[in-house]
Amino acid sequence: MFQGTYAFRIDQKGRLVIPQPFRQEFRSGLVLFKSIDPAIALYPATLWNELSRGDAATPFSPSRERRIGMRMFASAFTEEMDAQGRVLLPSLLRQYAGIQEEVVVVGAGSYVALWSPERWRRQSRELDEQAWRDAEERRTSP
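Below the sequence we write its predicted structure tokens.
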């Protein structure tokens, strides 16, 4: 379970230091890809392998499934942490997420989201403003 929010700097080689509490989950590798949000999603390789089996579309899958699968797999990068707990953030993903020198690392339960500080501030405000509505909808849903 990933939780908490951390601020880090990206080094000159485009690497991020994974927060200490998260490192154990990523020892076997990790997968980064474009999140639906304007952020980078980071999954432990073992969980990615498990989840991606269900999302693997075929050429004969409905178009919505093909598009979702193609977007997800086309932007996925398998990486390993180095001995210092750093991982390379591919430039394609950094550009997509608007991440330059700083990154906000957000624990999101089963995965980690990497946000640009500006986008995270906006997202965090929206989450705070919407929280009561989401809670109400959750309580009233069958």
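The chain has one domain: 5-116.
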